[in-house]
Amino acid sequence: GQQVMQIPQYQHVQEGEDFTTYCNSSTTLSNIQWYKQRPGGHPVFLIQLVKSGEVKKQKRLTFQFGEAKKNSSLHITATQTTDVGTYFCAGINTGGFKTIFGAGTRLFVKA
Amino acid sequence: DTGVSQDPRHKITKRGQNVTFRCDPISEHNRLYWYRQTLGQGPEFLTYFQNEAQLEKSRLLSDRFSAERPKGSFSTLEIQRTEQGDSAMYLCASSPGLAGGSSYNEQFFGPGTRLTVL
Fold first, then answer.
1. Least CB-CB distance to A104: which of B42, B48, B55?
2. What pLDDT is attached to residue B61?
3. A70: closest CA among A1, A24, A17?
4. Which residues of A touch B44 (CB under 8 A)?
5. Between 20 and 30 A from A45 (CA), which of A23, A107, B59, B97?
6. Could you tell me if A102 lies within 8 Å of chain B, comparing CB atoms?
7. Contact residues on chain B for A102, CB-CB shorter than 8 A
């Protein structure tokens, strides 16, 4: 079955350092979404990427969708303590509705 | 509060008992999803509704799990003959669908129901 793999599992950074999480799908995706989940909270939608090679920015966050629509990345510039949480990618196959989440990357930011 | 709501927030039950959870999506959203999440893992897709139609169901779901959305509004998830392995957070999410324009697929999650099977 379809799998979405995400690395790294954990990342510890000093405040101000950059952070990147990577996501790879075993199949070509229709689109990919990114969510953030704070400890004890529920996932919150960040963004959706649809086009091959698409790059979107939200302030310090940069999201990329690979040319083959099988991989994606989230990069945070100059992390802040408010960035703490787990970042999940979620892939949706063409013609389907099933959303497959990666295992997430948990970000720790030390002040 | 116009977000997604779930009830109950916590449920403790004994192995073998049946449990039912309720999800109330955002009122104008016609898409509804159920997920299961265990510690350290991402949400695991269980099923998807578009209005009242259940369009996709995970093969991981055994016959003990069933979900309904009878009027295309709230949804229920029932687990029969619960097992200790069913202990998890059960999350519901809704999205606008095509009426939501560019946000059609954005999923809004509820707070979840934490199930503990003793």
1. B42
2. 74
3. A24
4. 101
5. B59
6. yes
7. 42
User: Using CB atoms, which residue from B56, B107, B111 is nearest to A96?
Assistant: B56
> Looking at residue B101, what is its pLDDT?
66
CA distance B29 to B94: 6
Spatial distance between the Cα atoms of A104 and B56, rounded to a whole number of angstroms? 24
Task: Assess B25–A contact: CB distance below 8 Å, yes or no.
Answer: no
The predicted-structure confidence for A23-68, as pLDDT tens digits, reads as follows 999 999 999 999 999 999 999 999 999 999 999 999 999 999 999 9
Of B48, B105, B110, the CB nearest to A48: B105
DSSP letters, A39-78, are: TTS--EEEEEE-STT-EEEETTEEEEE-TTSSEEEEEESS
- CB-CB neighbours of B114 under 10 Å: 15
| Pairing of the two strands B75-79 and B65-68 | antiparallel
d(CA A108, CA B56): 36
Q: With CB atoms and an 8 Å threshold, state whether A33 touches B107.
A: yes
CA separation for the pair B110, B26 (Å, rounded): 10
Is there a contact between B97 and B28 (Cβ–Cβ < 8 Å)?
no
